[in-house]
Design a protein that fits this description.
Chain lengths: ~325, ~350
C-alpha cells in the first residue's frame, strides 16, 4: 500500500498506520522465530549426537555386535573388551526401521490408491459419506491405542494361528518367535499411515480437470481405463509425494512399534524365507522410546540423540522429497 | 445398416439402445479392479468399526465408576492399583497448555504466511520449516525439548535437576506439545485465508482500513470455524501423543507437585496422561494390567471420537462441491513454503 508518510496524516490515521506497521513487524518476527527454532532444533540434536558419530565414524550405520548389549554397557559404564564405551552399531535398528516402513508403505500405497479411486470415482454419495469419516477416524486414533490392540489382540492371534511350532523350533537358537513381530508391526503401521495417503491421493485425483476425464469417456474408454490412463497418470506425482510423506510418518512412529514390533533388536533376515515375516524387529524410534529413561547417562544419551538425529534428518529430507516429487504436476497446471 | 437409412429425427429417443456403460461389459481385469475398489472401501469401514467395537466391548467390560475418582498407585494387585484420576487431569493440563500456546502462535503464523508473506525468502523458509515441523517425529521433538528445557532461562519450568531429573514437568510437556499441534493450526488458518476472495480485502481497504484492522476485523472473524477446526485437530493430536509425555513429563504414575504453591507446583511437577497410563498398563509397560489399560484406552478413544465429531460439526458446509473433506489430514502438504 502506498501510504503517505505518517507525518502528513491525521493523527488517528497516523496511529493506525503505526499499529499496522507494528503488527507486520511482530508477525514477521514471530515467523522468523519459528524458523529459527526449527533450525536450532536440527543443530542442537546433531551437536548433542556428535560424540557418538565421531567415535564410531561411518561404522555407526554398520552392523556388528548386539545393540542391546551395547546399550546395556553404556548404562552400566563398563566397556566391552576391545571397544570404547561409546561403541555402537545401529544396523539392526536401521534395518528394522527400513523393513517395517517399506512393507507398510507398499501395502498402504496399493490400498490407498484403490480407496482413493473408490472415494472419488465409484462410491455413491452415501458410501462416500460413510468412508470419509472412517478415514478421519483412523487418522485420529492415538498410536497407543493401535499399540494396545496390536499387543493384546492381533499379536496373540498371529502367534497362535500363523506361526507353527515347527517354525518356532527352526530358529529357536537364534531368536524366539512370538506374536510381536514384523508382520504385526507392519500391518498396524499400514492402517496408521493409510489415512494421510488416502486423503492426499483423493485430493490429487479430484484436482485432475474434469474435461480430461470427459474427453477420455467421450472416446468410448470405460471408467476404469480412464482412471488408470488419465487420472492416475496425471496424479502420480502427488501419489509419490503422499508416499514419501507417509514414509516420514512411518519412520517416526515410536509408541506403537515399541509395543508390537518385538522385544529384541534383531535384524530380521530375508534369507529365512517366510519366517522372515515372523521375526521380531526393533525400529529406531521404538528404541529411542524405550531407552528414554537412560537419558541421564552421558554416553547413552549421546547414542540416543544420534538415533534421533538420523530420524530427524531423514524426516527433513523426506519433507523436501515430498515437495520435489510433486513438481511434475505443475507441468499440467494441476495443483493438488 | 438399416438404421442409417432412417433420419435421426424419425427415431424416438427411447428406442435408442441404452448406452453400454455397465460394469458387466468391461474387460475382466477392469471389472476385477472395480470390485477391488469396493472391497477396499468396505474393508476400511470394517477395520474402523472393528477397532471401535473392540474398544467398546473391552472398555465397557472393565470400566468402573471408581476408576475415575481414584489416583493410580503402584501395585501389582488389580484392586489396589487405583484408577486414572491423575492421568485424566494430566491429559487436561497438557492439552490446555499446548492449545493455549499453539493456537495464538499458529494462527499468527498462518496469517503472516497468507497475508504479509514478505520478505519473500523468509516466507519460503518459514513455510518449509513448518512443513518440516509437521513431519518431525514426536519422539525427536521430545528429545529436543529435553535438551533445552533444563537449561538457562527455561529452568523455571521444572524443578531443575536435583536427583537425576532432566527437567520434566507439565509445563515442558505442554510447551512441546504446542509444537506438535502448531502445523495443523497454521495449515487450517492459512488454507481458510487463501479461500477468502480478494474483493473482501479490497472492500475493507477501500473503506480506509489498514491491513492489520482488515485482518483483525474482517478476515479472522470470517474464518473462525476453520481456525476452530484446526485448533480442535491440534488438541486431538496432543491428547493422542505418548512420546512427548514419556520423555518430558517424567512418567510418575501420580501427579507429583513440586513445592507448596498449589497450581504452579503441579505444573512444575511430573505426572502422567491417559496415553502414558495406557502404555504403563499395557504388557509393554511396567504396570501390565490390561483391564486398566483397556478402560483408560476406551476413555481416550471416546475423547478422540468426540473431538472428531466436533471438527466435523464446526467446519460443516464450509467446503463446497463434492470434494472429500479431510480437515487437516492433507494440511500443509505442498501448500506452503517452496511451492509458492
Amino acid at each position: 500500500m502506498a501510504a503517505a508518510p505518517a507525518s502528513q496524516l491525521r493523527p488517528e490515521l497516523a496511529a493506525a498506520v503505526r499499529t499496522d506497521k507494528r503488527a507486520e513487524l511482530l508477525l514477521g518476527a514471530l515467523a522468523f522465530g519459528a524458523f529459527a527454532l526449527i533450525a536450532f532444533m536440527v543443530v542442537t540434536v546433531v551437536v548433542k549426537a556428535w560424540p557418538s558419530f565421531s567415535y564410531n565414524g561411518l561404522n555407526w550405520f554398520g552392523s556388528g555386535g548386539d545393540v542391546s548389549t551395547e546399550l546395556r554397557v553404556m548404562r552400566e559404564g563398563t566397556p566391552l573388551p576391545g571397544h570404547g564405551l561409546a561403541y555402537f552399531r545401529a544396523w539392526p535398528l536401521i534395518w528394522g526401521t527400513v523393513v517395517t516402513t517399506v512393507v507398510a508403505v507398499v501395502l498402504a500405497l496399493v490400498i490407498s490408491t484403490l480407496a482413493a479411486v473408490f472415494l472419488t470415482e465409484f462410491a455413491p454419495t452415501r458410501a462416500r459419506r460413510a468412508v470419509e469419516p472412517v478415514v478421519r477416524l483412523l487418522a485420529g486414533v492415538p498410536s497407543v491405542i493401535y499399540g494396545l490392540i496390536g499387543i493384546l489382540a492381533l499379536a496373540p492371534w498371529i502367534n497362535e494361528h500363523l506361526i507353527s511350532n515347527s517354525r518356532k523350533q527352526s530358529v529357536i537358537y537364534v531368536v524366539q518367535l512370538n506374536g510381536a513381530n514384523l508382520t504385526t508391526a507392519s500391518l498396524i503401521l499400514t492402517v496408521m499411515i493409510l489415512p494421510i495417503m488416502i486423503a492426499l491421493t483423493a485430493n490429487a485425483l479430484q484436482s485432475v480437470p474434469d474435461s480430461w476425464r470427459e474427453g477420455s469417456a467421450a472416446l468410448g474408454v470405460n471408467r476404469w481405463r480412464t482412471i488408470w490412463r488419465v487420472s492416475l497418470r496425471t496424479a502420480w506425482p502427488a501419489i509419490a509425494a503422499a508416499t514419501v510423506l507417509a514414509t516420514a510418518r512411518a519412520l517416526g512412529e515410536a509408541v506403537m512399534l515399541a509395543m508390537v514390533a518385538g522385544g529384541t533388536a534383531f535384524a530380521a533376515n530375508p534369507l529365512d524365507g517366510l519366517t522372515f515375516f515372523f521375526e521380531p524387529v526393533r525400529p529406531l524410534a521404538a528404541m529411542i522410546f524405550q531407552e528414554s529413561e537412560g537419558l541421564t547417562i552421558a554416553t547413552l544419551s549421546h547414542t540416543i540423540y544420534a538415533m534421533a538425529a538420523v530420524l530427524l534428518l531423514s524426516a527433513t529430507m523426506l519433507s523436501f522429497a515430498g515437495w520435489a516429487a510433486k513438481q511434475p504436476m505443475k507441468r499440467y497446471g494441476v495443483r493438488a | 445398416m438399416a438404421s442409417l437409412s432412417v433420419s435421426p429425427a424419425a427415431v424416438p429417443p427411447e428406442a435408442l439402445p441404452a448406452p453400454r456403460e455397465g460394469v458387466s461389459s468391461w474387460p475382466l481385469i477392469d471389472r476385477v479392479c472395480y470390485w477391488l475398489c469396493w472391497v477396499t472401501g468396505i474393508g476400511l469401514c470394517v477395520i474402523a468399526v472393528a477397532i471401535v467395537a473392540f474398544m467398546f466391548v473391552k472398555g465397557i467390560a472393565y470400566l468402573r465408576p471408581e476408576l475415575f475418582v481414584k489416583s493410580p498407585a503402584a501395585s501389582l494387585r488389580q484392586t489396589q492399583s487405583g484408577g486414572f484420576l491423575d492421568p485424566i487431569i494430566g491429559t487436561f493440563i497438557v492439552t490446555a497448555i499446548g492449545t493455549a500456546v499453539a493456537a495464538p502462535v499458529g494462527i499468527a503464523l498462518g496469517v503472516w504466511l497468507s497475508e504479509y508473506r514478505s520478505p519473500r525468502w523468509l516466507a519460503r523458509v518459514v513455510g518449509s520449516s513448518i512443513e518440516i515441523l509437521a513431519g518431525v517425529p514426536s519422539i525427536v521433538l521430545a528429545l529436543f525439548g529435553l535438551l533445552i528445557v533444563s537449561k538457562g532461562f527455561l529452568s523455571f519450568l521444572s524443578q531443575g535437576s536435583p536427583q537425576g531429573s532432566l527437567g520434566e514437568s507439565f509445563l515442558c510437556a505442554g510447551l512441546f506439545m504446542a509444537l506438535l499441534a502448531m502445523p495443523l493450526i497454521v495449515a487450517a488458518t492459512y488454507e481458510a485465508l487463501e479461500q477468502v476472495p480478494n474483493r473482501v480485502r479490497e472492500a475493507s481497504f477501500a473503506l480506509g482500513k489498514t491491513r492489520a484492522t482488515t485482518i483483525w476485523r474482517v478476515l479472522l472473524p470470517s474464518i473462525r470455524p476453520s481456525m476452530a477446526g484446526g485448533v480442535v485437530l491440534g488438541m486431538g493430536r496432543i491428547i493422542g501423543d505418548t512420546a512427548i509425555v514419556t520423555v518430558l513429563l517424567g512418567l510418575t504414575i501420580k501427579n507429583e507437585p513440586v513445592g507448596s504453591t498449589p497450581l504452579l507446583g503441579t505444573l512444575r511437577g511430573t505426572g502422567s496422561t491417559l496415553t502414558s497410563y495406557v502404555y504403563y498398563n499395557s504388557p509393554a509397560g511396567e504396570g501390565n494390567s490390561h483391564e486398566k489399560a483397556y478402560a483408560a484406552a476406551f476413555v481416550l478413544l471416546m475423547v478422540v471420537l468426540l473431538l472428531n465429531a466436533l471438527v466435523t460439526r464446526i467446519t460443516r458446509g464450509r467446503e463446497p462441491g463434492r470434494r472429500p473433506r479431510w480437515y487437516g489430514l492433507t494440511g500443509l502438504v505442498g501448500r506452503l513454503g517452496w511451492t509458492r
